[in-house]
Fold this sequence. Notes:
The radius of gyration is 17 Å and the shape is elongated. The chain is 0% helix and 45% strand. β9 and β10 (92-96) form a beta hairpin. By secondary structure, it is mostly beta strands. The protein has a six-stranded antiparallel beta sheet, with no helix packed on it. The chain has a domain at 9-75: SH3 type barrels (Roll). The protein contains no helices and ten strands.
Amino acid sequence: MKRIRKGDTVVITTGRDKGRTGTVIRVVDDEHLVVENVNMVKKHQKPNPARGVTGAIVQREAPIRAANVALWNPATKKADRVGFRKLGDGRKVRFFKSNGEVVDV
């Protein structure tokens, strides 16, 4: 089970986008994920007439290290660390370390 998943709201903790929040678009691998409107890079797009793609310089999100983001806690309005806990019915869920509130419902 991963600490940060697709659809989570995260806060960037380091780098040029420090302090910005965004939603996780996709998880690339164990250490990288793509966050909406964060770590924007310019890519030189080659034209492909067969697909109807014109050549241009496009901006898109690049992967960011998972260690450089923290989950957004809406209760405290801050970035927070995540832990794991087993519930009484045997389910494994994520919880915020600061207030013990369960992330997954």
